[in-house]
Every structure is written in structure tokens, then in C-alpha cells.
Amino acid sequence: MKILETKRLYLREMTPDDAEDIYRLNLDWDHIKYTGDKPFESIQEAKRFLENYSHYRTYGFGRWAVIEKDSDKFLGWCGLKYTPELEEYDIGFRFFKEYWNKGIGSEAAKACLDYGFSKFGLTRIVGRAMKDNLGSIRVLEKIGLEYLGEYDFDGEAGVIYEIKKLNKGKV
């Protein structure tokens, strides 16, 4: 089921059928060197992760599969995540290298921000990146997030950006 649609893309919930794509996406060091994530050991491990991914049920949103409309091809994922310990919503994304620098990340992430503000009434969304992850930082800036400061990204130098939107009658 399509959650969001843009000019070139649609976003939908990830399912266990996406396990091979998720496995391949996390195999490449260029994809995960700035995330702190470890590669899945197998397609089965990726499938188990997707089977147990509860963010959609718990919060009504999550990281969504990004699909190219013309080809129906899985390009990566993008979406919102809530972290209860921080009481914080963040935007995140990851795409296969062949789709970097084509505006795909910005297009998908902007749609997710808009959806979070309009559908869920969020008033603040952050984006985090390792300081050396210039591609992700560029996307965060392009979609309107503003630099907030530095922070510890799992032992690495990181940056945090934010965007705020006032809801009617709320600050």
C-alpha cells in the first residue's frame, strides 16, 4: 500500500519480501560506515528484522521502502522514527549508491517531513549524521533542517539538525 507519492517515487511499508534488498543495502560499507549499523549476516536475518519491525503498528509511521514509479524498483528507504528515550522524531534515509546525487533522498525525505507535520501533527523533527557524512548533511540542509549543534554519534563526531513547524494554536 502506498503511503506517500512524489513526482518520481512512492513510499510504502517495508515487508519481509524486501529482505534481499535490505540485506544488499546494508552489505556495502559505503552505506553503513556512517550509521553505526552492522551488516545483516544473511537475507534471513534481514527478513527476521523486517518481520519484527513494529514502528508502523506502534506509531503509525516508520522507515518506508522508496520505490521508483517508472520501474517499480526498490531504491532504498526513508522515513520517520520516534525514539521514546529522547522524546524525539527523526528523519532517516539510505539509498543504493547508484541513486546518490540524483535528488532521490531529498525528494523522499521532504515528502516524509511534510507527512509528519500534516498527518501526525509533529512540531519538531531532527536529523542526525556523522560529521563526515557530507551527503546526508547536504540532504538535511536541502529539505530545510537547520544546524543545531554537535553531538556524540556512537563515539564518532556527529551533528544534529532540526526543523520546527507550529501547529494551529500550539507552540
Please sum up the structure shown.
By secondary structure, the chain is of the alpha+beta class. Helix content is 30%, strand content 33%. The mean pLDDT is 92.
Structural description of this entry:
The chain is an alpha+beta fold. The chain has a single domain (2-122), classed as 3-Layer(aba) Sandwich (Aminopeptidase). 30% of the residues lie in helices and 33% in strands. It has six helices and eight strands, in the order ββααααβββαβαββ. The chain has helices spanning 19-27, 29-32, 43-51, 55-59, 104-119, 134-142, and strands at 2-5, 9-13, 63-68, 74-83, 88-95, 124-130, 146-153, 156-164. The strands form two sheets. The protein has a five-stranded antiparallel β-sheet, with helices on both faces. It has a three-stranded antiparallel β-sheet with strand order 6-8-7. A hairpin with a 5-residue loop joins strand 3 (63-68) and strand 4. The radius of gyration is 15 Å and the shape is globular. The model has no long low-confidence stretch (mean pLDDT 92).
Number of helices: 6
CATH topology-level fold name: Aminopeptidase
Structural category: alpha+beta
CATH architecture: 3-Layer(aba) Sandwich
* Main sheet strand line-up: 1-2-3-4-5
| Total domain units | 1
In total, how many beta strands? 8
Shape: globular
The CATH superfamily title: Gcn5-related N-acetyltransferase (GNAT)
Radius of gyration of CA atoms, rounded to a whole number? 15 Å
Task: Report how far the terminal alpha carbons are from each other.
Answer: 33 Å
Uncertain regions spanning at least 5 consecutive residues: none
How would you sum up the major sheet?
Answer: 5 strands, antiparallel
Fraction of helical residues: 25-40%
The pLDDT mean sits at: 92
Give the H and E element order.
EEHHHHEEEHEHEE
The level 1 CATH classification is: Alpha Beta
Give the amount of beta strand, in percent. Answer: 25-35%
